[in-house]
Amino acid sequence: MRRADTLADKDEFPEVPWRFQAAVYACGMFSHSLNNMATVILPLWVISLGASPLVAGIALGCRYLLLTLFSIHSGAMMDRVGTRRVIVVFGVAAIILNAAYPFFPALAAVIIIQLFAGWAGSMGWLGSQAMIGQVMKGNPVYAGRLSASLRVAAFVGPPLVGATWDHFGPWGAFGLLACWGCLPVISAFLLPAEADNKPDRAPGLSDLMPRWSDYQDALRLLAVPAIVLVLAITIMRYAGISVQHSFYVVWLNEIGLTGTKIGFLLTVWAVAGGFSALMVGHLLKIARDRWLAMGMVATQITLLSITPMLPNYEALVLVMAVYGATMGISQPLLIGMMARATPSEHQGKSAGLRATANQCSGVVLPMTMGAIAEWAGLENAFYIVGVALLVTISVIAVTVGRRDVTPRRSSPE
């Protein structure tokens, strides 16, 4: 096995002070867990408003529509005016938007708020990925620590917001979301000056507007085979996550689980993923990153697809634990592969490009599954979507086997 196929020696990556590492991990975990917490209560909120499966799919899927359209622009803003600044501004917007849901109890309002809340609430997570490339040079050990840190907050957040929904209703649950949204903003303020690549330059209005040249730069990255591979695997991985974030919770609600029990399932996912993410560095000493990533994604899809077959809550807990472990391994692999294949001055755009791939799945999959559920029933929708995704990941694996797409750290252009 060639050395380039496995984890590079730790000495080949720069040492990053723990003060910087801790701030990056905190920003990422609180931002990412905010979306996980929303995943628990938003399907319950949409159902309480009387949505049909198709309308529910649209309302839940549109959360990531603006993020899909403007992820590259968001990453480009980080490259131009500084990652920390972007996180703070969007983080404040996310606080306001997450508090707004119960003030507007109508499906049309949910869709409008979702559009902007999903975009704003993801900037801390997007920024932490950009800093893995900008400062940590795509070191998969640091990427694994970031992925593990996400599960720390997820251990507390989902069951807490689920219990809040059960005892205090929508007002209490969405109020908790708004308070939690303050945490990534505080974490961003604790980031050192290096988090803003041009800390002495005040951003102008032109820096905040989308530029076609940014999208051109991002699309040029698609000339790198390793980046195309990462994006293809990313789409498959997030397709499974999209099911978890939408109709998985709907199914659990249909079989009579409370918000607290649903939240506990996500906590099990978080704990398992946290431990497995810390093992990535060891696993890369014995396996190629691309095959390991594809294997984990295929397992993840299979486990989620068999949800309606599981006979009881204990089985749901066990499957969710294994599912979380596979996700904990695949996430830092893909972050590190993407960062190492991208020039340093384009790390924000690279993170935005990966987020675009994620959110394309996040927008399309819930709507598609909602339509399938209307036609074939929710249970059959799990099986149909699962088979389609497994066939697709198999095609990717066969294609990858025919050429060398090993990601390597790129030098600045």
Describe the structure.
There is one protein chain. With 413 residues, the protein is mainly alpha-helical. The protein has one domain: Growth Hormone, Chain: A (Up-down Bundle). Helix content is 76%, strand content 0%. The chain has 17 helices and no strands. It has helices spanning 18-48, 53-61, 65-81, 83-100, 107-121, 123-134, 140-180, 182-189, 205-208, 212-220, 225-254, 259-277, 280-283, 289-305, 313-340, 347-376, 378-400. α11 (225-254) packs antiparallel against α15 and α11 (225-254) crosses α16. It is globular and about 50 Å long. The model is unreliable at 1-11 and 409-413 (pLDDT under 50).
What is the tally of beta strands? 0
Q: In one word, what is the shape? A: globular
From the 3D structure, determine the CATH topology. Answer: Growth Hormone, Chain: A
Structural class: mainly alpha
* Largest β sheet strand count, sense and barrel closure: none
What is the alpha-carbon Rg in Å? 20 Å
Low-confidence stretches: 1-11, 409-413
CATH class: Mainly Alpha
Task: Provide a short characterization of the protein structure.
The chain is 76% helix and 0% strand.
